[in-house]
Amino acid sequence: MDGFTSEQIEKTNKRYWMIEDAMDRKEDALISVIVTAYNVETYLDECIKSILNQTYSNLEVILVDDGSTDAVPEICDKWMEQDKRIKVIHKMNGGCSSAKNTGMAAATGDYIGFVDGDDYIVPEYYETLLTCLLETNSDIVRTGMQRVDEDGNFLSSVIPKTATYNSYEALQCLGLDDGIFIMNSLSLSKKKVFCDVVFPEGRVCEDAAMAHVMFCNAEKLTVLCGDLYRYRIVSNSIMHSKMSVSKLDIVEALYNRFVDYEKKGYTELLLDTCNIAKNKMWMLATIPFTTREEHLRKNEIIRMYRYMYKNTPAHKSIQCKLCYMFPRLYNWLKVVFKR
After folding, report:
1. What is the pTM of this model?
2. Of residues 241 and 323, which shows the higher confidence score?
3. Where are the domains of the chain?
4. Gene3D superfamilies in the record, alphabetically (predicted)?
């Protein structure tokens, strides 16, 4: 190999054996794909087909029917009869967090991925993510998505740049409030990453609530350039429905993240977390609080934000201070000026 130094040859050989080892491990790796489904009969067949038609076939597909009142239970059972890789769990309705926890408890794979029952994935989705995960020796691999409408028509793409992060750097990326680092459906992870992850039942924004826990459990996270996931915008879904009190769960998720950072001594991460919470507080001015329980929840959310503000040691913006002192007035003004 004339023209190459011994160091270059050694590096090339090391890269070659790393790829060979990754390919060997890839053949044996079992991926548990957890599909949560609640009243998505219109889209579930397409979702399941997209998973079963993956170019990587060593899959365990766990369909969690979260107490659906439409044809979802029958659709799940039909597919289980057709493909031995499918497990079906029928449970009482408990929300997305409960369904994900149920799916994780049943998962036996080396790696875990999630697909929402009204979404779908391209054929090479899991092969691409698994190959990247093994070749880079990462614990989590994330990628981008295409947003599609209810009929599957293209709306927009989110394509991240390829990058690699250690655990703390990944936590810093959470401070950008970028969905690439939050949505579990855009990722494939080693099972160990979920060792102490319990999605908060009775709450929405469950991925945001647990993202920092997963990143603390990971040594390396890789973001892969691409848009292989198809995220469907459905008008009656929880995440795209009209403003309701449940939307404020994101502030509680950020509060819990903030408290965990305090315990770990990650003081540099507190300001970004507080700022994200401030940016979510505008919802207070748009939600119709009618019951006593809803007003109590509103006051609880305000207390959580004020705790974050008071315990953020770094410089805080005037907006953060206004939101702390006059949360209702601040958020009313923000909504007015948005118009």
Report:
1. 0.88
2. 323
3. 8-236, 242-338
4. Spore Coat Polysaccharide Biosynthesis Protein SpsA, Chain A
